[in-house]
Amino acid sequence: MFARILGKPKQETNALATLDKLNETLEMLEKKESVLQKKASAEVEKAKAYTKAKNKRAAIQCLKRKKLYEEQIGQLANFQLRIHDQIMLEGAKATTETVDALRSGAAAMKAMQKATNIDDVDKTMDEINEQTENMKQIQEALATPIGAAADFDEDELEAELEELEGAELEEQLLQPATTAPAAPVKVPAGRVPTRPAPQKRTEEEEELAALQAEMAL
Prior knowledge:
InterPro entries: Snf7_fam. By secondary structure, this protein is an all-alpha fold.
């Protein structure tokens, strides 16, 4: 949105791209100059060696190559000065475009603020709150019991529940306490304790035994 309003990011991008290209070119020229400086120094050392060896012609050839390298170094130095001047111009241009873009952005924001009234914002928020409250009331109305469920008296149900709880507690209190196990009977030596007579089955126990016998068959 701001890009459409400002209308200058493309120009600013082009300026930055140009600066990057100029810096790359300057770095490349500096590397070439360094290489040529090394070559020129090497030719000087060769000329000294040939001079010691009384090889005047070879020494002169070395000095000629050194001169050529120095001429190239001078040209590269001029190129670098021009690149520096261009970088300064592009930097100033990029700064101007940046300031223009910021100015346009500030104007666009000011225009949007004028188009948005604070009273309209408050009115919109009030409407949202009102709709939220209405929705809450609708949900509460839907959750209200209807028909037979609406006729139930909550107090009456609570009282009935208390009566049930009281009756259950009373029933637990009236249950007989568990009897302690009988102490073992001491039998004198030499006597066999008599077995208790089997208890007579109840009618229900007999029916259960007969049913288990049939199932075993």
